[in-house]
Amino acid sequence: MMMKPRYLAVAVGLILSSAAQGADISASAIEARFNAMEKRLQQAESRAAKAEARATQAEQQVKQLETRTASNEQQTRQVAKTAEITQQQTADVAKRTETLASNTKSSDSDNSGFKFTGYARSGVIMNDSGTSTESGPYVTPAGQTGGAVGRLGNENNTYVEVNLEHNQTMASGATSRYKVMLADGQRSYNDWTGATSDLNIRQAFVELGSLPTFTGPWKDTTLWAGKRFDRDNFDIHFLDSDIIFLAGTGGGIYDVKWSENLKSNFSLYGRNFDDLDDNNNSNDDTRIENYIVTANNYAGPFQWMVSGLRAKNNQDRENTGTQGVTNAADTGFHTMLAYHGDSFYGLREGTSTTALLYGHGLGAEVKALGSDGHLTDDASTVRLATYGITPLSKNWSIAPAILAQQSKDRYVSGDDYQWLTFNTRLIQQITENFELAYEGSYQYMDLDSQGYKDNNNVKGGFYKLTFAPTFKVGDISDMLSRPEIRFFASYMDWSHKLDSYSSSDSFGTDGFTSGGQWNFGIQMETWF
């Protein structure tokens, strides 16, 4: 067996070492040791070769990482440069946009530009003989003092409102709003009704809002001036009766915010009464102007309204009754406490509104505030109004309402007008576009006019029942969604004594006396 020189040297060393120690080592033992040593040396060389390979591979990976790092640094510099360019471009765009906004009168597409809204109702109504009939939400004797009854299947007029608005939002954030309303109402069924038209401009006003120079409680308030309905009027639609209706020509400010939950509106309205004639005034006819100063305050869902009224020279107006002449008032006040609920009286889902109103003197016309110049100094009126809307089930909804009023010394000393109305409308959904509407109304009245306008003292009850199949395209579950077209049949009757209340009243006229009346017709109603 040939041995490598280095192995031979090691072997010789070992032999000599063993000989020096005096060991007796055989040739076979020496050969075995040589083989074991050679094996260990080969393993060591293999491990060294592998380590050298891994080191080479690691060196290559380091070089590759250095290459990628250099590439990333270059890309980062390029991205940073691009971002710098983009930022500059963005700044340029923002500057151009700001310049454009400053030269544009309106910049909010939702709040700016022209807007068209409206309301209309129109239809035909007849009795069971196929002839014209008396009707209307104020058809009863109590209607002369605001005693409304259910309107469904009980209207015979065409009434139209057309509203045109123009809104602007300035670069400063300030807003402006111009609105004009045209309205017409009449009972003619003809296509051309110019001779009997009541076409009128009912509103024409301007609002200025969010003025940047207004701070504190005045921030985000809205100034207005012109002829208008007050923004916060509200009504019982199913009776066609406002709960409060403040309107006229004047000016004011909305949304003065004292705290997070307390705000106020202030206004001055002017209205005109009919002129005094020569029989009541030795001078020439006099135009009587009535001024109404109002503070309308809101705390959460509560509303408290306080108003003062003055109409100089109106005290010269004379009202005649069985006990002589009573002069009209030239001052008055009015107040209202209301609750606007977001549930059905706290019992279930829906909405509800309740208001208690009181007025004295010129404020004794508590609904259409400032509209009646014949009220006396001692006139006093209390009115309660409440209604709600709630779903009863998937296909049924209900809207009950109560309206009650007592007015004393209203037009002449000692008179007393009392009435109470219950009204309920039920809606039954049949399909997505068809429903059945049911309405029941009852009104009791006790009217002691003390001979004013030759009216007689009467008391008694009135009731009306209506069935109205209705088609609509809006949300069928929403009782107030419109438009809708309805067919209707109404039956009404009242106490016989009510026929004798007044010669100018609907009750007691030819063909419209107690004993039961049927009305039939078709009507459309829409708003948007």
UniProtKB/TrEMBL annotation:
<feature type="signal peptide">
    <location>
        <begin position="1"/>
        <end position="22"/>
    </location>
</feature>
<dbReference type="Pfam" id="PF11471">
    <property type="entry name" value="Sugarporin_N"/>
</dbReference>
<dbReference type="InterPro" id="IPR036998">
    <property type="entry name" value="Porin_LamB_sf"/>
</dbReference>
<dbReference type="InterPro" id="IPR050286">
    <property type="entry name" value="G_neg_Bact_CarbUptk_Porin"/>
</dbReference>
<feature type="compositionally biased region" description="Polar residues">
    <location>
        <begin position="99"/>
        <end position="113"/>
    </location>
</feature>
<keyword id="KW-0626">Porin</keyword>
<dbReference type="InterPro" id="IPR021570">
    <property type="entry name" value="LamB-type_porin_N_dom"/>
</dbReference>
<keyword id="KW-1134">Transmembrane beta strand</keyword>
<keyword id="KW-0812">Transmembrane</keyword>
<feature type="compositionally biased region" description="Polar residues">
    <location>
        <begin position="66"/>
        <end position="91"/>
    </location>
</feature>
<dbReference type="InterPro" id="IPR003192">
    <property type="entry name" value="Porin_LamB"/>
</dbReference>
<keyword id="KW-0732">Signal</keyword>
<feature type="region of interest" description="Disordered">
    <location>
        <begin position="66"/>
        <end position="113"/>
    </location>
</feature>
<feature type="domain" description="LamB-type porin N-terminal">
    <location>
        <begin position="30"/>
        <end position="59"/>
    </location>
</feature>
<comment type="similarity">
    <text>Belongs to the porin LamB (TC 1.B.3) family.</text>
</comment>
<dbReference type="Pfam" id="PF02264">
    <property type="entry name" value="LamB"/>
</dbReference>
<protein>
    <submittedName>
        <fullName>Porin</fullName>
    </submittedName>
</protein>
<keyword id="KW-0998">Cell outer membrane</keyword>
<keyword id="KW-0472">Membrane</keyword>
<keyword id="KW-0406">Ion transport</keyword>
<keyword id="KW-0813">Transport</keyword>
